[in-house]
Amino acid sequence: MKNLAFKFFAITLLGLFLISCSNNSPETIKIGVLNGPSAISFIKMMDQPSVIDGKKVEIIQKNEPQQIQAMMMQGKLDFAILPTVMAANLYNKGVHYTMVACPVWGTLYVLTNGSAKKISDLKNETISVFGQSSTSDVLLQRLIQKNKVPDVMIDYTLGTNADIAQALKLKKIEFAVVSEPLVSRLLAQDSTIHIVSKLDCEEFMINSDKNVFVQTSFLVSDKFVKHNPTAIAQVCKAYSGSCNFINEQPEKAAKLLVKHKLASDINQAKRSIPLCNIHYVAAFAIDKEIGLYLKIFYNFNPKSIGGKMPDSEFIYQ
């Protein structure tokens, strides 16, 4: 009778141990991405789901960066895509995700449904922007200052990029900063809407062969680094392959964008791909450029990146 009780106790302990192990080794690798260029960059992995270290890669799409940020703060994501400014802000506030790569290099454009052709035409005009001290806000203000355009008003009342795009389409506003893929969608839907200027870090590109517009960060959680160090390179290989596929096979990529409802039709998908500026580059290879980019925002408003420049540990080595 004692032996039977002992066996039952041992089996119970074994079961609890196995449950504990399974909780520490989830069967999925969860990647949070934003609808738009970030999701487009993952299109091959969406169409052909990867299995890495015996774990299925699950790509979770959200409409707004705040939704991705909330999941990161709750520890629900192994990898994530966020604007680099927001990623640095979270890092400085103790949310433990480090930058693995930059996959998207500038998708912000000044659009109008009026007659303006150049930045100087924005004199005495109002431009709608999503998010005060956001990437689009800071780069727009710098562009206005550099070109010495007087009396430009910036309106932050519209809550999302989608709201701004809709208002521009309905002629409720005349000028706006919009991100791709809404740019190509608007251009396809209304012939009066056109690009006035791309937002860029132009002064750093004049005497440099490297772009510093590291707009988007591909991030990994410290927890995943600790428990799955060998899987990181495999995830990066699969993701960089998806980014390369977008540029090397745009016809096939365009069909997949329509298939997965990331574009309304083939023509819009083809127009969107070059505007997304997708190019996977490992963060450690561009640490100087990342620093220059974040310095722009720190100098403009230190709070935008959490009050200080992130330390070297922000870059995954």
Helix-strand layout with pairing:
Blueprint: H1 2-24, E1 28-34, H2 37-41, H3 43-47, E2 51-52, E3 55-62, H4 65-73, E4 79-83, H5 84-92, E5 97-104, E6 108-112, E7 126-128, H6 135-146, E8 153-155, H7 161-169, E9 175-179, H8 182-189, E10 194-198, H9 202-205, E11 216-221, H10 222-227, H11 229-248, H12 250-259, H13 266-276, E12 278-282, H14 287-300
Parallel strand pairs: 1-3, 1-4, 7-8
Antiparallel strand pairs: 2-3, 4-11, 5-11, 5-12, 6-9, 6-10
Helix pairs in contact: 7-8, 8-13, 11-12, 12-13
In words, what does this structure look like?
This protein is α/β, with parallel strands linked by helices. The chain has 2 domains: 184 residues, D-Maltodextrin-Binding Protein, domain 2 (3-Layer(aba) Sandwich); 92 residues, 3-Layer(aba) Sandwich (D-Maltodextrin-Binding Protein, domain 2). It is built from 14 helices and 12 strands. The strands form 3 sheets. The chain has a 7-stranded mixed sheet, sandwiched between helices. The protein has a 3-stranded antiparallel sheet with strand order 9-6-10, sandwiched between helices. A hairpin with a 2-residue loop joins strand 2 and strand 3. The chain starts with a helix and ends in a 17-residue tail after the last helix. About 7% of the residues have low confidence.
